[in-house]
Amino acid sequence: MFHLGWFLGNGYGIQPWNGTYAGTSMTDWTKPAIYRDLTTSLERGGYDFLFIEDTSMIEDTYGGSAESTLAYGRMAPKNDPMPLVPLLTAATKHIGVISTVSTTQYPPFLAARQAVTLDHLTEGRFGANVVTSVTHRVGQNFGYDKLPPHDERYERAEEWLDVVSKLWESWDEDALVHDQITPRYADHTKVHTIDHHGKYFDVRGPLNTIPGPQRRPVVAQAGNSIPGRELAAKHADTMLAMGQNPDQMKAFRDDMRQRMIAHGRNPDDLKVMFLVTPMLGETDAHAQQREAERVAYAATDEALRDKLWSLSYVSGGEVDYAQFDLDGPMPTNIVGNGEQSSMKQYTQGNEGKTLREVLLERRQINDLGLIGSPDTVAAKMGEIMDHVGGDGFLLYPEMTRRTIAEFTDGLSSALRKRGLIRDGYDHPTLRENLRSF
Ligand SMILES: Cc1cc2nc3c(=O)[nH]c(=O)nc-3n(C[C@H](O)[C@H](O)[C@H](O)COP(=O)(O)O)c2cc1C
């Protein structure tokens, strides 16, 4: 068996709003209804969690203006996902909700307290996806001239997670006395200051609330660069990983398991979830036809502009890809200050190709050949996981009510028939369910 998650890649932001199945998303993306539909369907489909992306900026790197961003609704507008979380768990009983928190945006005390509050409100089904943010435009909304350099951001994130972890442990397990007669609510000798004085943070503690059902809320991590992997190996319960092919996926997971052992952790306590965008159809032929339509669309000017916009973003807002000739050489020497692992997907091994060729060949998130009817795709997912060694997939479809039905009622049923995914939830909390196999 393997785990399933759903990556809500544009967060609590504008969802596909002008296609055939967009429905009322153009105006209703701000309302809770579609996210509730999504989460209840995911629970029916045996997913471990919904994973909500978040960013805080209106990008203007591509073309040097926000025109393209706002004309298409690219990563903006976007609401804060945290208040949405308890609405989703109130509509469900078992599924977890992981939402993104940036170490650049949140002081550690505020984040630790917010996560524990959400752990209480979700009755132990909350997870925090700890990221370092990607572009300068985010940094500039939080007091920086520019987003700090990539590796320094991770150094700061390490200390940030150390502080947050200490705050989560600042109440001993037996600190609550709950004696109404004496009366004594809590034992002050079992609630400790943390007195943290580090390079980036000074925090006295203790946390001013009691531990939630999970004590330590689930921690997720999304970066795949070496410092990102280290952060995950030290602190995370689950991480997003980008899969290119089964061999690379196996190597990535093996690498993470080694890093976990090096940090004295049980490698089974980190679930490596590979992002994937399968193409489903009523039949294999129907899926192939839909894939052909996707490939044809990907070659249009509009789709290519979208990819150039994305590259400008993942470069950390350092490079405006509108400046390059699509039929000129692919600039392969750009590392950027944003998502370095995403950048590599486009730069590595592409010397001598044109920019257009690379944009047509490479996708940040792969389909891993998962194209077909739900049954065909379910069988291939099983084969890939057997090769990789385990953990699971983080499915990343565009979010419409059509894709929700395809991936929960269609794909989940096919996976379940093969015994590949859970047929119910054994435990009340997200971490326990993640660790149950
Ligand atoms: C698939 C994926 C999802 C990510 N989601 C977010 C996000 O929701 N918000 C955010 O600010 N950064 C996000 N990031 C950025 C990373 O988590 C990370 O903090 C940083 O950009 C560096 O990434 P790197 O380790 O790949 O270089 C994401 C990165 C990847 C690859």
Short description:
GO terms for molecular function: monooxygenase activity. The chain is α/β, with parallel strands linked by helices and 437 residues long. The protein has 16 helices and 14 strands.
Question: Can you describe this structure?
Answer:
The chain has helices at 25-28, 33-44, 67-72, 85-90, 108-121, 136-139, 150-168, 226-235, 246-262, 284-298, 301-314, 340-347, 355-361, 374-388, 401-417, 430-434; strands spanning 3-8, 49-52, 96-102, 126-131, 176-179, 184-186, 196-197, 202-203, 218-221, 238-242, 271-276, 279-280, 371-372, 392-395. The chain is an alpha/beta fold and 437 residues long. The protein has two domains: 3-283 and 367-434, Luciferase-like domain (TIM Barrel), CATH 3.20.20; 285-361, no CATH class. Helix 2 (33-44) runs parallel beside helix 15 and helix 5 packs across helix 7 (150-168). The longest helix has 19 residues, at 150-168. The model has no long low-confidence stretch (mean pLDDT 97). Bound molecules: flavin mononucleotide. Flavin mononucleotide binds next to strand 3 and helix 12.
What structural class is derived from the secondary structure elements?
A: alpha/beta
**Heterogens:** flavin mononucleotide
Give the helix tally: 16
Mean pLDDT: 97
Estimate what percentage of residues fall within beta strands.
5-15%
What is the helix content?
A: 25-40%
Distance between the termini: 7 Å
CATH architecture of the largest domain: Alpha-Beta Barrel
- Please state the CA-atom Rg, rounded to the nearest Å: 22 Å
Under CATH, the topology of the largest domain is which? TIM Barrel
Number of strands: 14
CATH top-level class of the largest domain: Alpha Beta
Which sequence of SSEs, written as H and E, runs from N to C?
A: EHHEHHEHEHHEEEEEHEHEEHHHHEHEHH
Unreliable sequence segments: none
Largest sheet: 8 strands, parallel, barrel
Q: Which strand order do you get reading across the main beta sheet? A: 1-2-3-4-9-10-11-14
Tertiary shape = globular
By CATH's scheme, which homologous superfamily of the largest domain applies?
Luciferase-like domain
Structural domain tally: 2
